[in-house]
User: Fold these one by one.
Assistant:
Number 1:
Amino acid sequence: MRNLHTATGIALAALAGLAWSGWACAGASNDPPSETVVAPPPIDAVAVRLQTATALARVDPRYLSFAVDSSQVAGGMWWSEDTSVSGSTGSTKVPPFDFTRPRLRALASALAPAFLRIGGSEADRVFYDLSEAPVATAPPPYELVITRPIWDGLAGFARDLDLTLFFTLNAGPGPRDADKRWEPANARELVRYATGRGDPVEIWELGNEINGYPLFHGMDLLLDGAAYAKDLRTAHALLDAEAPGARLAGPSSAYWPVAGEMNPVMADTLREGGDALDVVTWHYYPQQSQRCPVTSRPAEPQVMLDPEALDEVDVWAAEVEGHRDAHAPGTPVWLGETGNAQCGGEPGVSDRWAGTFWWVDQLGRMARRGQPVVVRQTLSGTDYGLLDDSTLTPRPDYWASVLWKRLMGPTVLDATSVSPALRAYAHCAVPGEGVPPGAVAMALVNLADAATPVALPDGGHLLEAWVMTAQSLEARDVRLGDAVLAAAADGSLPELGPRRLDFAAGRWLELPPRSVTFLRLPDVDAPACR
């Protein structure tokens, strides 16, 4: 645990006993306080410290980002509802992703600004044909085709919704010569076309999960860091020529829970080719779904309530950052793909309230580490999507993502809890009407199955709270206060107003069991946030 700072003399504490009944969530933030709290906090507090004098880190304004899988985009094999698999991919053939759906656009717009990553295992099986008369089927060994209409639809979606594209280029068997060197000719067609149109592509990534190539493409494509570093230099030369100003990312190495980086390539890649990378990417899932042929931590509803399981992401993040520091100092590290469970997510877990504790906690942890971007797999589809793709019904993680976007700004503060069951994260609040300079936002994740009172920081009396709960870990519906959250038919969101409190005595409130609470403290006047 990090040292606790007391520069502002602010302390939080977890206690027990107050009910949240009778709160409707629709009150606007400029309404009068909905109640006054006059009782002092209980004495049996679990302390949390908040340091507001200086910033701990700063993340990208697009920090919380999301993906649409390459298989979805090009109409490939995708994870099936019956959890069957075909080799290392799903077993369901899907049509090319429909980016024109109005409800999808409305729901996705609430997550902007963000990076939209197009990647996943099938990225390394795609052929790019931007001609007027594209091929009907991909030339072997390619399996999928991105055509001009597909690309134009994807790029138009990004442009219309204030999204920045983060695209994974095929580095698989197709674009390689007899000596297994990556050939840029096909990628050049796409990069040149996108650049010529002015499409919002800021990041081009070379390949998806380079360390998994033997699994995805056979042992003939076992790349070491030195070989991949040569590919990176070829890709960087391509971008210098065709897309000046765009950035190159890689190696998107996959880290498994418990096992870490299977078939390690990260250290050697950065040692041999770190100077060719503008962004270091890595992938992490904290558990595996039943679709995965091999598991190191099978997904279950209770797993992501285990503090040790949640904390493990820091172990692998520190390893990646250590390789970066040794071989590519100053290069940003992005968590370029993450979801609740590998291989499409776990039915009844990744798409339910059980998954939201992990999601908010991991967002808090990676921001605290200063990793500028976290990309959620996926926007919609299968069990780990933020949305159900067939109905476009928001899942619990979607609502938590919207609140994070609205409240947690890019400047990260140091908040720490002495209780592993109470996770506390703090950022400068997102600016807006009625949000004064110096305001602080917090995310509190209560893993405990009992109510947890919290003593709040000094600094004015007012507090705004958004408390998310559900009837069970397996619940599809999430409540904000007393209201079940649901989008309208056109994708518009309900008013997500806070409960507003005015404290006449000790500042404290109670967190319901197994809840996620966002707070905004408008009167803290944090020096780091002015």
Number 2:
Amino acid sequence: MMNQSTYTPPSERTHFLVSGGGKGITAENAIALARSFQSTFTLLGRSKLLEEEPEWAKDQDSEADLKQSVLQHYKSIDKKLSPKQMDKEIRQVLSSREINNTLSRIVDAGGEANYLQADITNIEQLKDRLNPYTSKINALVHGAGSLADKLIEEKQESDFDLVYGVKVDGLRNLLSLIPTEQLEYVVLFSSVAGFYGNAGQADYSLSNEILNKFAHHLKQLHPSCHILAVDWGPWDGGMVSPQLKRILTRKNIRVISLEEGTEVLVDLLSKPGTKPQWVIGNPMPFPAVSVSEGLKSYRITRQLSLEANPFLADHVIGGNAVLPTVCAVGWFIDNCEKLYPGFQFYSMNDYSVFKGIIFDQTLAEEYLLELEEIDKSSEALLFQGKISSESPNGKLRNHYQAQVELRKKIPERPSITGFDLNPDHPQDGKWFYGEKILFHGPRFQGVEEVLNITPKGLTTRCDLGSFSLREQGQFPVRSFNHFMADIHLQSLLIWASSQLGSIGLPLKIVVGTQYEPISFDTTTYATMRVKSSSKHKLIADVISHDEAGLIYSQVTGAEITLNTNLFDLVKENKLDKEPIWL
């Protein structure tokens, strides 16, 4: 087995062969690896790299300019140009530019790079092109892939041959030319479609699952080699168009940002590990399961640790990490959705906090989530849930309770009325974090600006950049983005401090409804309207919406308990000693 203490990450002596590495997502990963390890990269691709662009393409930046220029060129030489031929010529120029850009960025990042045009399904061509480099290569990233999405009854043999050929035959060809004994690192770009399956992708799912199984097999044969099969979910880019991204968002499938995905790969190569397969991202949507008769109950246990949840370093009160209440909300939601694939979170009712979870000596060895179905139909399900644990002296501790409603079809987003996005003495959100009115660290610092604040409420403009799944730990964002929810609810703390001179902790939510999931890197607005307030309590509604007023989610009857003594505790918002994060 690989010696964990002597593992050596890639370095300047590492020579990566990257299939599909000239363009797209695989290219972005190669650039990130160059930035981290300053290695050498031989990129393989089917696209031609032009030695010099044709005269008509020079100084033409946009696709529209290229079309106009190539048409004028063919007209000047009295030749006809079909739409198909024009598209081919322009695609070749743009493709070549992208490859050159990849090569330049790798060099700028501290690496070395060259590009080889080769079809990895053509063994003779591949052998000829690779021959000068074969003996130097000690790392392989197999990122090449093709799609031919169709329902299985519509697929042709040629569809299967294309998809299977690039993924499986391509890998076989690469490993027939580069002995596995000389490889120190092997990274196979697989897909969640291989792990979970996906409608219309029988060939793609099968091919990627072969890569998964092969990674386990290769690890057995070569335990000293660092082998990874990474089952990626859909990326924000590459094969995911803006239209497809909107569709995936409506289906509660989170796309992986370039920053997040490349950081995951660098992290997996930076540290030792014997686990060859990693699933990164949400599962693809399953057809809705049939709802059986009879109400069921479930008991689901889990263990929590500070070390497994790096984001908790940014949610510290009194020197101790505290589980954000929105993470408990996500805890309920995620487990309900896992029980009934095809159904989506719609609302949460009667959410109460009895005793929050603090990561100190009171942390339990195990936490119990109890879910009981209290109503169900083919269109909706209602669960009663409770999270509890056992104290060191054997007593039951209740932490949270809620009702969760799932629906097969979520209503269209309604619009908020009477909201005001015009700044009235706007305040920079950074000020509230700096003054410890908001105790939250960087991963929760999403309030960009308080646009207006009155005795009746306020409106904030919010945005939060994505961070890695490793940092999200045991609470990865799925259909419910608890980090964004926390940022919207921070409006209560801002208002209480400004209008009442106090600060509070969450206690209850009467109803919370979600119409559309919120992705990271999305500008949103939180409009908070006060229902009642006193020296000890604030109750308000919080509506999360976009600039046009379309609602993402709304919380009715959010209640926090107020206490001025909390100001001293929230100023202690740093861990005394950060643990070694897993």
